[in-house]
User: Fold these one by one.
Assistant:
Number 1:
Amino acid sequence: MIKILLDAMGGDNAPQSTVQGACDALNADKEIYLILTGRKDDIEGELSKYKYDKSRLEIVDCSDVIDMNDIPTEAIKKKGSSLVSAYWMLKKQEDICALVTAGSTGATIVGGQLILGRIRGIKRPALCPAIPNSRGTFTLLCDCGANAECKPVMLCQFAVLASAYAQVGFGISSPKVGLLNNGTEEHKGDPLHQQTYKYLSEMKGINFIGNVEGRDIMMGECDVVVSDGFSGNIALKSLEGCGKLVSEVMKKEFKKNIGSKLGYLFARKTIKNMRAQLDFDRFGGALLLGLKKVVIKSHGSSKPQTIAASIANAAQIYRNGLVPAVEKLLSEVDLDALIPAEENQ
Amino acid sequence: MIKILLDAMGGDNAPQSTVQGACDALNADKEIYLILTGRKDDIEGELSKYKYDKSRLEIVDCSDVIDMNDIPTEAIKKKGSSLVSAYWMLKKQEDICALVTAGSTGATIVGGQLILGRIRGIKRPALCPAIPNSRGTFTLLCDCGANAECKPVMLCQFAVLASAYAQVGFGISSPKVGLLNNGTEEHKGDPLHQQTYKYLSEMKGINFIGNVEGRDIMMGECDVVVSDGFSGNIALKSLEGCGKLVSEVMKKEFKKNIGSKLGYLFARKTIKNMRAQLDFDRFGGALLLGLKKVVIKSHGSSKPQTIAASIANAAQIYRNGLVPAVEKLLSEVDLDALIPAEENQ
């Protein structure tokens, strides 16, 4: 049995989406056991709508909820909240493997650092979504927002974290790693990116292919794009904005007149395929990498299928040994030998 | 007559695209007079294919060409090249209003600074493309790559430059300005963005609406997005990558089988409309703002219609007085009164 916590109150559509997603996930994988944290009455009300294996679901009643406007460092003091309760259980109960939440990103990151704790040697956790690419697979973008200010050693560790994730999550034995920069030439970028380029080139165990540009996230040939959290966040949200505009323009244009509506009828299946390929939520949430257990941060606007995909991924990634893979790769790259002590704080 | 220089050898498809674009631009606007710099024989060979008003086109023979691999600071020493010759003519001949090039971005920026020169008081020129948005208009993104490392005063000036451009190029009297950041809250980002937020809030003459995220470039409500050149470059290229993937997926899906090909026949017009709305080249090139005259950097892969659009825009923006508008707004905002001398270098 793989025990996974679900913050049932996290996200814009909670607990409707979270509960429906939970039932779908239970029905899809008989090895999954779910613990839902949140307001018991609300959760039970939603649960009554679905069929699922009751022996593999329990509810931990939490009266409090973290609001999206709460300051993260304050939010995680709400001990009775669905997210903080979940983090404490994840930390204390050895048999619980993972946490899935669609709640506040800031609180999830702070809770991960301060309650659950980092893998030994990891300086900062990093958010890592899987973005659909032109090969029909996914590009991992790490970090995409947990760390607005970075040092070279942090970016080197993001390469380790995301490479381990690519190995266990996507079965890529030697994932190609690119550094997100404002041009592909070696000298490009500010001192942070120039120095990181140098270290990544020298790191054993990391298959570094050089600098990549924003367009390579969806078009390029690499499996992992390493980024400071500021640029990574801007890249991710730019891509999401473009995807949203495409979707809006498509809807508007096909509804324009009788001719375009007729066109839609004939092209419906093709359009559906297109949408599926460009769906950012298809893979579920972003991993919060670098923590002692698997934590997945699903989009605030997660639909039931996104929650279900996040739960399925959490199980799969735990099964394939994400944390041991990070620990193994981190010891192989031996950053302490590569980076001078004064830069390695 | 509005005299505009065209670097006929700049870009991947030069001189075919540049020459065809030049003829189209001449035919579309009787007030335009073009000076093409480049290899005379090659240009004349291309010109022979088109009808145009010969009295409004001249060629300045330049034997040398800047290669995309030349280091920018070395490239602009190639005095006999089509770009450097054009820059010197732009500087020295008062009756020439503007320059359009699809050549090396780096050489265009360095040449702009070192040959043509900046508007008095402007610290750095900035690249500013017009990106299609959900309102059916354009969002100006400034800077998107001329300055990898920025200070707050530079970002404040980018707000001035792009606001003036929005006024004269798009007729928006009080353009809404957002600051590209990793979240919308006031405290978001690194010290550069926190400090810039503070100054932008206090700047008279700038209609600052606060922090915006990557998704707001294409989705949001603002006319200008101010950005450091590093993040702006990553945002722009991420958007281009997403646009390209959408285009590829569309092609592939509609060619998949007989059913999807039939769908295409019925949806053709709608798909064409969609493509047009999402076309990054529709507006022509990016302005290199902050220089003493109008300079437009068109995409390296510019098609003839992109070159023609860039030339038409150069004429229009000159007519509407871009440089005087920048000077006026710069004196109104009075950055020297706002920013302490030690930060205002």
Number 2:
Amino acid sequence: MITRNQVKRINRLKTRKRRDEGVFLVEGVRLVEELLDSELQVELAVVAPSLVRVERGAQLAKTIRDSGMQLAEVTDSELSELADTETPQGVLAIAREPSWELANLQPGDRTAMLVYDRLTDPGNLGTLMRTAHALGVDWCVALPGSVDPWSPKAVRASAGSVFHVPVSREPWPEVMNWLRERDFTIFCADPGGEPVTRGVVRGEGFALVLGNEPSGLSEEVRNACDARIGIHLSGKMDSLNVATAGALLLDRLIGDPDRS
Amino acid sequence: MITRNQVKRINRLKTRKRRDEGVFLVEGVRLVEELLDSELQVELAVVAPSLVRVERGAQLAKTIRDSGMQLAEVTDSELSELADTETPQGVLAIAREPSWELANLQPGDRTAMLVYDRLTDPGNLGTLMRTAHALGVDWCVALPGSVDPWSPKAVRASAGSVFHVPVSREPWPEVMNWLRERDFTIFCADPGGEPVTRGVVRGEGFALVLGNEPSGLSEEVRNACDARIGIHLSGKMDSLNVATAGALLLDRLIGDPDRS
């Protein structure tokens, strides 16, 4: 059984209104598994009979039941109505948005940060969160004007990485001060920027700022850059998708022990 | 004026039926500009008054008129009805699908090829076409089971790169024979593969095969691989988006003169 209030609440989460409540919606087996595997607080799980029809779903249903979290059981058609996606796989959850603040980050050597300057496409932002997670980025910041990292599309594109890699939403002056006080190098992605050479990042930490597609970086960010960096394009296309450009720059900045 | 037949034809192009006709739909100023800048044949341009309201659009309208191509003029609301996107920016076009075949490729030194093995997401395939174009890949192949490179979503994600980088649709045995006969190295992307070291590709050409997300490479492709390669992930996420993984592997395989 699901209450009328729970249904209303889930429906609100599919619109921008949910920002007022500090919670967001997670759908599907893989994403809910990732959510339960994170430190985020789950407020409600909603489960339908189709979940237990595959082994992996049955395992997830057991985990949900054993956890003692609040649980609503609905029919498959009720779940389809509640879901934002077409195939919710018999499960969705409401989770509390974490309140990450840069002030809480204790930087170590070679701390890597990714900053989104008015990134408006949720698919690109989510894909970048997934890349950040895979490449070992420590922190992400979504500057004002960027898409909500907890929107359903961004969460899906991140494959659950938004549950694990901290992403805070703070204005540039605060972020810049934080970076300056700790001697971080501020790199800005720019199609006309200098190609990155491995080893450019030494002891200290760094932040890589990615701008809006197609309008680029905002003036205040551009002015604060220590270096504008880009990918040397040997082909005829003059730009890369922002999630691709961000991945290539991060890979080169972070480097790894396997590269010659 | 637009004829009833032209309207019917455009509406068919928004569905899978258009495959029968060998033509596809292109929408928006930037994409139509890219189309006119390519060697592809344009069958019909459709223009509405809103196109000329911005300087860049007015320039495009002039180019279309001067070219002597078949042109239909419609109202803005008629164009919105015809378009697949919400903001067609006053212009769309029907173009003839090029008939690229691997048999026509004359490989040179360090020829780079990208092969899609059952890639089903049009956004990922389009993003990979854009990356291939930017990094100087010479040829792409979409194996059976892959999404149509000329679908509206793939064309949009490619930012027009599908008009420039050849992409053929051929079965694996033919592709493999072509590669073997020319001593190409066949690399397969695999999350558990060996990290790529720069310089691994020397004189000869290579093909990088990307598999389905999440099921991976098909058996026949996997068996033909010379090497399985992957990205060493320092973070906690066990996989990357396929368009991101493809970009990182290509960047490392192709290398560039700016890297140390």
